[in-house]
Amino acid sequence: MVQLTKGSIRQILDGQNVTDPILQIMQMKNIQNNMDGMTRYKVTLFDGEMQHTFGILATQKNHLVEDNSLRINSIIRLEEYAANVLSKDPPKVVVILLNFEIIGNADEDLDSKPVPKENIEPKVNALAKKAPSMDSKSFFNKKDEEKPKSTAGTAVGPAGTFNGHKIFGISSLNPYQNKWSIKARVTNKSAIRTYSNARGEGKLFNFELLDATGEIRCSGFNEQVDKFYDMLQIDNVYYISKAQLKTANKQYSRLANDYEMTMTGETMIEPCNDQVENLPTIQLNIVPLSDLGDKSANDMVDVIGIVKSVGEVSTIVTKATNKELTKREITLVDDSNASINCTLWGKQAEDFDGTDNPVVLLKSAKLGDYNGRTLSVGGMTVFQVNPDIPEAHKLRGWFDQGGNEACVRELSNQTGMGGGSGGAMMTQSNWKTLDKMKTENLGMQDKPDYFSMKGTVLYSKKDNSMYMACPGEGCNKKVIDQNDGTYRCEKCAKTYQDFKWRMILNINLADYSDSCWATCFQDTAELILGIKADDLGELKNTNNPKYDEYFSECVFKEFNFKLRAKMETYNDDRRVKVNVAGCDPIEYVSSGRRLLQAIKKYAATA
Fold first, then answer.
1. Residues 6 or more apart from 410 whose CB is under 8 A from it?
2. Mean pLDDT throughout 141-156?
3. What pLDDT does 551 receive?
4. Better-scored residue on pLDDT, 317 or 133
5. Is residue 20 exposed (0-12), middle (13-18) or buried (19+ Cβ within 10 Å)?
6. How many structural domains does the chain have?
7. Quick one: three-class SS letters along 500-559?
8. 145, 179, 195 — which closes off a domain?
9. Helix or strand run (H / E) with residue 587
């Protein structure tokens, strides 16, 4: 049998660092942890002289027991372990088996197996029966001056240690360890968030760490936010020790790790200035924007794009919490000739500067399907502006060399973004002529179809184009004139002394191929008629002849229209209804460039 490393258990219990001891598994017992519900295995270790009855198998090694690779009498080479003091009176030390190699079994003939020691001991089991009971007193009687000292001015000690503790791989960490350190790369960092509970108000942030063995999520609160937030930068490498380990809350962590860290007042973090070639970098799986239409809603995707346009900062109130949130919409384009809307939140939305069309990298952005395809930057989305990676440089070259004028396919139904008086952001994308609406069956599916067209107003209906609306904020319902100088809103259940004018204008649009009726709402109707609704309502109330003129003067005006086509049923009659989602006056320079590109594309295929 294999020569066991005699005396190694005594050395481990004395706090010495023993390199790759050869030990035998004498007993094994399944135990259940009531705190986290996880199964663990308690083992008895034997080194040829001494037994230690309190060994614990790291949970990531459970599968070795379950598939019978590790069993009673197995002989292992212990490559990584942690000796943790559970109590001093009576003395109790747990040895956690973090990483090891199974090199055989005491009942087998191992002469043909490669082992680190040449000598073979004939009767390991017999020795085990004579092994004395464990005596851990020497472990607790160690003098403080014998403990390893950190180097002056820094906690980085000899190679393989930090803050006096051995550097472990992330995958080997577990809550039973109390003397460990890691060297890992920050792959993600959230914004600082605030919270309020029974103990008061506070702030926190999260970040994710990566080394060659795995990933782990770490949280910091209050003092740790002030101490470490600015220090920790994405893609930099750090030494970390003395953080608390606990079972991961999978509701908030997407990482494949059973545990997560929480920083405490004793946590130490220092930048690593050593060579880190052995540490993996942030892994990207960049998806071209044009392929996002094939992904499922709520998928987490990595994308990179040029900021084509930036919307204004706005606020919304959530229904669930009734809290006010700040948001900003930006539009990204890439060299797959597609564009998509992306939502930024909170301080990130307030601080974002889209000047000079920066390149933006998003890792783990959430894909939505509201108003077409959209992206949202969540708390753990990596968001980098002008990253120094080949994909970013390639995209910048494409944009500067003509990509900024390319015709792109819109994946998002871009409304409410600003950029035109009609409230829609008009981009050179998805242009069609009106005859395509019929030949391509636009609007015939479950979801509406959006497209752009250059059209001329042939007629505008004056009848029923205006109504008296509720003046309450956010309410545009029609009010009832009570003929006593007051107006009643049934939705708000309130009576007002005034009202506001709202417009619903029906117009007939045409291009060279066809014509159609379309409905315009407040902003687009005001742009087409060239007058505000309140001013037009005043003309109507005073029977001013100028009122009729506005409806006739808009005829033959040209605009770039953004149209929404959707099948609707009215009186059992199904038909495609067209609404004007936005419109802009024609910019003839960009319009001419678009036509030239279309001509070149046609000539190349002719």
1. 338, 339, 340, 372, 427, 429, 430, 450
2. 46
3. 93
4. 317
5. middle
6. 4
7. EEEECEEEEEECCCCEEEEEECHHHHHHHHCCCHHHHHHHHHCCCCHHHHHHHHCCCCEE
8. 145
9. none
Residues 379, 236, single domain; the answer is: no
364 with 248, same domain? no
Let me know: does 565 contact 540? Beta carbons within 8 Å. no
* Nearest by Cα to 175 from 248, 256, 277: 248
Return the minimum-mean-pLDDT range out of 173-182, 324-333, 359-368. Answer: 173-182
pLDDT digits (tens, 9 = 90+) for 487-541: 999 888 889 999 999 999 999 999 999 999 999 998 899 999 999 999 999 999 8
Q: Give yes or no for a contact between 519 and 543, defined as CB atoms under 8 angstroms apart.
A: no
Identify the pLDDT of residue 33: 57
State the Cα–Cα distance between residues 140 and 161, nearest whole angstrom.
22
Please state whether the peptide bond connecting residue 90 to the residue before it is cis, i.e. omega within 30 degrees of 0.
Answer: yes
Instruction: Output the pLDDT for position 314.
Output: 85
C-beta separation of 224 from 267 below 8 A:
yes
Instruction: Tell me: do 457 and 587 sit in the same domain.
Output: yes
- d(CA 245, CA 266) in angstroms, rounded, equals 13
Is 176 found in the same domain as 46? Answer: no
Structure confidence by residue, pLDDT tens digits, 195-213: 888 888 999 999 999 888 8
One domain for residues 441 and 587: yes
Task: Give the CA distances from residue 283 to residues 187, 215, 298, in Å, rounded to whole numbers and listed in that order.
Answer: 9, 12, 20
Element (H, E) at 226: helix 223-228
For position 390, which CATH number holds?
A: 2.40.50.140
- Class of residue 603 by CB neighbours under 10 A (exposed 0-12, middle 13-18, buried 19+): exposed
Q: Is residue 29 part of a domain?
A: yes
Task: State the pLDDT confidence band at 84, using cuts at 50, 70 and 90.
Answer: confident
- Residue 486 domain-assigned? no
- The C-alpha atoms of residue 310 and residue 354 are separated, in whole angstroms, by 6
Q: Is the pLDDT of residue 408 over 60?
A: yes
Q: For residue 146, give every residue at least 6 positions away whose Cβ sits within 8 Å of its Cβ, in sequence order, or none.
A: none
558 forms beta bridges with: 456
Domain hosting residue 222, numbered range: 161-271
Q: Render 324-388 in DSSP notation, one character per residue.
A: EEEEEEEEEEETTTEEEEEEEEHHHHHH---TT--EEEEEEEEEE-TTBSEEE--TT-EEEES-S
Is the domain of 441 the same as that of 588?
yes
Same domain assignment for residues 200 and 340: no
Do residue 60 and residue 122 come from a single domain? yes
Q: What angle do CA 256, 261, 267 make, to 5 degrees?
A: 150
141 located within any domain? yes
**Closest listed residue to residue 434, CA positions, set 415, 457, 451, 449:** 451
What integer best gives the mean pLDDT of the chain?
81
pTM, 2 dp: 0.48
Distance CA 216, CA 133 (A): 38
Q: Answer yes or no: is 331 within a domain.
A: yes
